[in-house]
Amino acid sequence: MKRWTLWVPLALFALFCAFAGWQLSRPKDEFVESTMIGKALPEFDLRAATADRPALATRDFLDGKPRLLNVFASWCVPCAAEAPQLEALRRRGVDIVAVAIRDRPDDVAAFLARYGNPYSRIGADDLSEVQLEIGSSGVPETFVIDGKGIIRYQHIGDIRPGDVSMLLTKLEDVR
Amino acid sequence: MIAELGLAALWLAAALAALQLVAGILAQRDSGASLAMLARPAAIMQGLLAAFAFLMLLVVFAQTDLSVKLVAMNSHSEKPLIFKLAGAFGNHEGSMLLWITIMALSGALIAALERRLPEKTMLATMAAQAFVGLGFYAFLLFSSNPFERLPQPAPEGMGLNPLLQDIGLVFHPPTLYVGYVGLSVAFSFAVGALLTRQVTPDFARAMRPWVLGAWIFLTLGITAGSYWAYYELGWGGWWFWDPVENASLMPWLAATALLHSASVLAARDALRAWTIMLGVIAFSMSMVGTFLVRSGILTSVHAFAVDPERGTFILVLLTIYIGGALLLFGLRAGTVSEGERFSVASREAALVFNNVMLSAILGVVLLGTLYPLVTEAFNVRVSVGPPYFNPVGALFVFPMILVMMVGPLLRWRRDTISRLAKPLALVAAAMAVGLLLIAVLSPVGILPLLGLVLSLGLAIASLMPLRGRKLRLLPIATWGMIMAHFGIAVALFGMASESAFSQEKLAAVKVGESASVGPWTVVLADVVPTAGPNWTALEGRLLVSYKGGTAKEIDPQSRNFWAPPQETTESALVTRWNGQLYAVVGREAGPGRWQLRLWWKPFVPFIWYGGVLVALGGVLALIGRVAADLKRRNVKSRSALRRTEKAA
């Protein structure tokens, strides 16, 4: 065997590592983005999901103030995981409204009592109708809605601590 | 408390791995010789601690402790106990813990049992095993802690993917993992031998049983995985060339080549550098496979842990371990002489040919798996499937099978083909008759035709080594080889037959109506709702009869799981000696009509019978090798005893 052939495996492997590293460093958009971004919220008028917060309708978004619309459910574990981040956003003065998906009032109340209640309004979406109309495919998801009721940004999955400042910037951008 | 115990055990095990590494390195010099005594106990203790940590994970899953994040994300209180336990490794963190546990346990086993190698080589081997282990401990502890607690316990778990709630999952991943990770021992042996320049027949003999053990599990794991995909996914196929399947096939191919080249090294002191290379490659393929699946750079139906951050971590580990081993190989292999020479017609030459073919198949599979990754660089999305893998793989499989027929009949070092004229003529005649019969009876594609004929030839040829031998005196390891080669013939027959003769029928039938596929008549007797512990289902009551014989009831289901919500199809099978009827019930197709999907697959179970035979052949070979080793050790110690008596 020639000496140089002994280095062929290492060279091939280096090539593989280079490719794999380059692939990993590329951002991958594997989420299904809502086609509703840039469009107005659909018309809806949901009943209140709990006794101690008002209900939610499209007209509540038209007051000129940007806010977050959080899609959550009491039966969803990542929703509990993002609760501290929502609370942090609320303390920074962000108005957060929510849609509770396929939930019971008692369960929602118990969930909020346990993990905190950062919401100013909570609508109950018993059949995921509003959820589907705004282009959300799971829980939790968070939308940035501008003061005219137009969907500006969609965050899929739970809000991680690193996402808080990103969401604040997005809200600032649409002001 | 239990989770914390597990975590503490993991940290301790990692610390012991560090100790094992340092002791193994320092003991290479005379000044550190006193540290040598630490390495073996450290390895054994490390294995026990890792096993303890894994046991603790099983306990938190059995108790459904929802304050542990992993349990909350992957289990559910209403799941049957066996699936709760299986859920412990049906996720990224748990399966990595299983990985490290097996790795530490195999390290403990070599530390406890292996006494043949020179002590310094053994210390270097244990240091290498600890070095690889440390990387995976770091991965587990810093980025994938399975024992992480939630700030607040979850009210209920999210459940386990219903496809995974199957008895197959309980055994398939651990089996496969023992295979993957068992190969780490071969990797460490290769690195240890390179470091201490001890690439000898003794090294091959010491490594062989470990490779054989891992290879048996890998064979069983792949066979079981293939059967699981066949009956659980409800697609009627048994191999999909999915990246994860390829990830399990590639280490198997490398390990198969390694077994054969280690035989040459053990028997004839040839192929030194090549054997070392394969030792490195086999475990590297396990790690590359894991990386491809976990990092998300390839999309796969199995990808349960897609996370670029983890991908980066594994890539760094790969670069250190595989890159380091290959660098060492480049530096040292040139100083390892190639060893004994042999002629073209010899057992060695046949084994070399087999090795080259296996490596080529490995290359074909690797290229096909990575190709989408490469084209994506140029923004072209492709998926590589059977149209590439089947013919290109066959290009190398078929010549390999031809040489497999001859190889075991050849003598070591030098032989003549003319000596084998008679048996080979017999095999060739059988294949010619088979070819004619099939060509006349039913037209089939060229690949299945060749597959059928070659499987016939190999089945006969694999029994040829029995010719003219006293069966009682034949070594057990030789029986193992015969059985494994015969198993390959059986599996190939199943694959070729499935591809050549399968019949499929898709029908929409009302209750009371019938459909037929091949020799089977299927009557949809009823469709009834039914329920299990965590699912509801529509169950089709099918009355099936073979060639108008007595009817038998089978009940395929379309299941709805509620945690997490997902639909699965549970196929129903009728196995006869000459094939399988495969039935799936689908949705309602119009009022009162139900979709029925039926397959008649002649001889398809032979694929898995063959796989089991191959694994059993491995078991026989392992028993034979270990028994021979023990005998040799006894003889040695007895002669040593005699010598000391004489001296006295």
What do these coordinates show?
The complex is a heterodimer of chains A (175) and B (648). Chain A has helices at residues 8-25, 77-81, 83-91, 105-115, 129-133, 163-173, and strands at residues 45-46, 56-57, 67-72, 96-101, 121-125, 141-145, 151-156. With 175 residues, chain A is an alpha/beta fold. Chain A has a single domain (45-173), classed as Glutaredoxin, CATH 3.40.30. In chain A, a hairpin with a 5-residue loop joins strand 6 and strand 7 (151-156). Chain B has helices at 2-26, 36-62, 69-74, 81-87, 92-113, 119-143, 167-195, 201-232, 243-268, 272-295, 308-332, 347-376, 386-406, 421-441, 446-463, 476-501, 606-647; strands at 503-510, 514-517, 520-531, 535-546, 552-554, 557-562, 565-570, 572-576, 579-588, 593-602. Chain B is globular and about 90 Å long. The chains are: A alpha/beta (175), B alpha+beta (648). Chain A binds chain B through residues 1, 3, 6-7, 9-10, 13-14, 16-17, 19-24, 28, 30, 74-75, 77, 80-81, 84, 111, 114-115, and chain B through 72-73, 150-152, 154-158, 273, 277, 280-281, 284, 288, 291, 295-297, 306, 308, 311-312, 315, 318-319, 322-323, 326-327, 329-330, 333-334, 338, 370, 373-374, 376-377.
Features:
heterodimer, A: alpha/beta, Glutaredoxin, 6 helices, elongated, B: 648 residues, alpha+beta, 17 helices, 10 strands
The interface involving the most residues is between: A-B, 27 and 41 residues
Spans of chain B of at least 5 consecutive residues whose pLDDT stays below 50 are 300-305
pLDDT < 50 runs, ≥5 residues of chain A: none
What is the distance, rounded to the nearest whole angstrom, between the alpha carbons of the first and last residues of chain B?
60 Å
Number of helices of chain A: 6
> What is the 3D shape of chain A?
elongated
Give the neighbour order of strands across the main sheet of chain A.
5-4-3-6-7
Proportion of β residues of chain B?
A: 5-15%
CATH architecture of chain A: 3-Layer(aba) Sandwich
Arithmetic mean pLDDT of chain A: 86
Instruction: Report the CATH topology name of chain A.
Output: Glutaredoxin
In angstroms, what separates the terminal alpha carbons of chain A?
Answer: 70 Å
Main pleated-sheet profile of chain A: 5 strands, mixed
Output the CATH homologous superfamily of chain A.
Answer: Glutaredoxin
Q: What is the average per-residue confidence, as pLDDT of chain B, rounded to a whole number?
A: 86
